[in-house]
Each structure stands twice: as structure tokens, then as C-alpha cells.
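Mods, move this if it's the wrong board.
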Amino acid sequence: MRTGVRSDGSGQLRPRVEEVRIQGLGVIDEAVLELSPGFNVVTGETGAGKTMVVTGLGLLFGGRADPSRIRPGADRATVEGALVIEPGGRVAQQVEDIGGEVDEGELIISRTVSAEGRSRAWLGGRTVPVGTLTYLADDLVAVHGQMDQQRLLQPARQRAALDRYAGDDLVKPLRAYTQAYKRHKQVAAQLDELTTRARERAQEADLLRFGLEEIEKVDPKPGEDVELRGEEERLSHADALRGAATGAHAALLGDPMQTADGARDVISLLGEARAAVDAVRDFDAELAGMADRLAEAGYLIADVATDLAAYAESVEADPARLAAVQERRALLSGLIRKYGEDSSAVLAWAQSSAARLAELEGDDDRIGELTREHEELTDRLTELAAELTGVRQAAAERFGRAVTEELTALAMPHARVVVQLTRSADFGPEGVDEVELRMAAHPAAPPLPLNKGASGGELSRVMLAIEVVFAGADPVPTFVFDEVDAGVGGKAAVEIGRRLARLARTAQVVVVTHLPQVAAFADQHLVVEKTSDGSVVRSGVVTLDHEGRVRELSRMLAGMEDSELGRAHAEELLELAAADR
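Not the wrong board. C-alpha cells:
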């Protein structure tokens, strides 16, 4: 059962790193870190492997693999992390989308780096590209170490963070801008389609118009091609059909031109058969039934003979009609070859093509309407973008002052952070503003991008100041800081500890520090201890109780764990930190 799990203030579980296992990394043979949801500090003597903790966390979330960091004699370095995440939340959904598993809100991430430089990663039990860990890290952790890519150095992150810092003042105009931008983009795409393909559309309209005129001239009827095919067959074989009907009629009723002695037609033969059977039908019911059937056959043959005579009379050779039918069929066949498999399909093509032609012929009117709408939307976007710029500029000035004040308290009294807004050439999804955080190291220095205006240790402090100011506006579940206190001591160190504790109210914070003033503010204190041979084993990472913290802070203050003066100072620091909470 997990304890100490914090929410994000909305009642939802706040993601955090619960446990990290490191093997074969730097001086660390094997180490296990159990982290609290609040402020965690990692301390230890120089060379004990504190920085490897940050390096391990960086690897866990897709950081660059450096085979030179692998422990001498080891064939690979392995980092495994257990994270608590919200079941069904964004991160859980991302993991499940790639086939990984989240077990009751717990996610396992693993990364190995071989001595040859090969790297492999696992997410929720599924092998994934290392880039997947980097992508996932955007929603989980911000690692601030000298060798790590800083999250807030990404321009898109800086704009998004500033927008959240601007708060409610930006929500309404940004929503209005977004709606107008989407419609503006749709209209622009439709205009581009209509204007850039004008020639193709004109050619299409000409082809449709020609086809419709051709069909209109012929004026086909549904099923007409089938009917004409049958009529042509009859007309082409009129003599044969009439001869066949006449011959069949003669066979059934006889030829009146022949003498009676030579007539042996079917009706006569049936009459003889019926007369022979009728003479004795009364003696056997079965034979009587056959006599009735012979009578029925006689009636049927007489009817067929009558129909054959009528058919023979109706069939006439009509060369003029045959020629007309063949000419009509030729016209229909020409249409069928071009527009459909039969006359009905040709008519269906004509119907759909007429609708398409009406659409194409209305393009000029449509272009005019869209052009007017596009101009109106452009004017509207210009107004809304200017409003967004104004809100962002005001927020940028507030933000710059707030971060500069934080830096003053963090022993960087001459540093100044500004937010530079520049206008992009085109409208974008969030406006026309490009946002960049810049820092001037001293009053005479020009503001430079953060990664150029600050040294490694200064950059960590700048990032701490920014994260403290952004806390709540640009929430990240876990922050990791290394060397945030480089070159700092005394009152400034206390202020760093106080600000890290403030940040830990809304996020999990992990800090590697050598300053007791910072360590005193932690919710959980981990110490990395080397064995006599210089390695760090599992038992070498210890979670300290109050007495242990006093001893460790005393060592950090005076270099001696049992110094009375050091212990007194350590107790004073812990009391100060507790009172500050």
C-alpha cells in the first residue's frame, strides 16, 4: 500500500517517481532510492556518486547515453524506475497505446546502456525506442542538470508556460482567436483549391458540358439498349422466323395445299390415338385417364398452332426499320462506351455530372464569397492577435520582474531575466508571438538565450527561479535539480532551500546538494555512502531519520558528524525549515 501520495489539488493522483534502482553506473555498483512525493535531497561525500543519481534519472527519461559513465568492469549500466501515475490518465493512455501495461497505477520504466554504447528501453514491459521515453518525459519530469536538455529551453514550452502564467486574462481572447484561426485556415484552403486549380476545373467543366450535350442529343431511355437489341435480332432474321413458324404450324395442322391422303399432321395423329383409346376407356380407369390427357394434348396443340399462324402473319421483313434500329443502337453504343455499361448507367452519369457542372460553374461566385470572408477573418485575426500580444506582453513583464527578484534572493543580484516577444510572419495556432526567455548576467550585458547567458551552475538557479514562478501555471509532476546551489552559501543557500520546498508543495522535487541549508528543508533525506573499496551498494543509499539528518547536516557543516557546534547548528537549521513550512 502506497503512503504519502499527493494529489494535484483537484483530487486526482499526482504522478511521481516512487523508486529508482541503479546498477553499474559510475561509482555505483547497485543502489536503490525510495523517493517521497515531496522534497527529496540526496547528499554524500565527494565522489560518493550523488551526481549519478541525476544521471540515472536522466537516462530513465530518454537522456543521452554515455558509455564512459558505465562502472569499470561492468558490461552495462541499468536504471529501472517505478512510477505512480493516474490510472486512465494521459500518461497511462500513452503507455497503453504502444502496448505497455500499467498495473494498478504503477508504471515500470527501464533503460540499459552497454559498454559498446548500445541502448535499450522498456516501458510498461514493452520494448520501445529511447525517443518514446523522451516524449513521455514531457508530461512527467523536468531534469535540470548540466548535461541535460532543459524542458523550458524549448520555445514551444516557453510560450505555453507564459500563456498559463497569464491565466484567465488570456483564456477568452485565445479561445476567440483559435476559433477564428481554424475558420481562416479552412477558407484559405478552399480559396487555394479554387484558384490554383482553376485551369483543371475549367477543363473538367468543358468535358462535363460536352458529355451532357452528347447525351442530350441522343436522349436515351432506361433499358432502351436491351429492347433495341432484341428488336434488331427479330428484324435481322424475319424470313427464318416466319419460315420456322409456318413449318411448325404445318406439322401440327397439316398443309392445306396437300391432298387429304398425304396429310399426316399431329392433330390427325392425336385424333386417331384418342379414338382408339376412347373405344375401350370404360373398361379401365387408368386407360380412361390417358384418353383425357390425349384430349388435353389435342386442345393444347390446336392453341399453339393458332399462335404460330398468327406469329407467321405478324413477322415481316422491314429493311427500313432494321436500318433505323441499327442506327439508334450505334448511337447508344457510343454513349455506353464513354459513360456507362448500359443506358441506365449513362443516365446516372448525366445526373451526377449535371450536379458537378453546376458546382463548377458556381466557382466564380464562390471565390468572391470566400475572398470577402477571408479578408474579414484576416482583419479579425489581426485584432485578436494584437490583443493576445498585449496580454502576453503584460504577463511577460510581470514574469520577468518575478524571476529577477527570485534570482536576487538566489545570490544572482545582478542577473535579469526578460521575456522577449517577436512577431512571426504568419498567423499561427496560438497567435503571431514567438516567445523566448533571455537572461542578462549583469546590467551591462545584453539579454541572451538562457543556455547562452548563464553558466551551468547559474542555469540551474535560473531554472529554479523560473520553475518557482511558473509553479501551478506550467505544472510538471517531478523536478530534478543538480548543482542548483553551485557557488552559493549562507543566506542565499537558505533561500534556495526555501524555494525548493515551496516548489515541492505542488510537485515532487529531487535535489542533489552539498549544502546543509538546502538539505534541511527536505521532506526526505537520502545519503549516498561508499564502502571501503569506493563502491556504492544497495545498503549504501540510506533514508535518514531525524537523528541521522542531524549527524549528516553536522558533517556537511563542520566536516565532523559528532561536532557539538555542528549538531547545534544542524538542529537550528531543521527548526528553521520546519517553522518555514
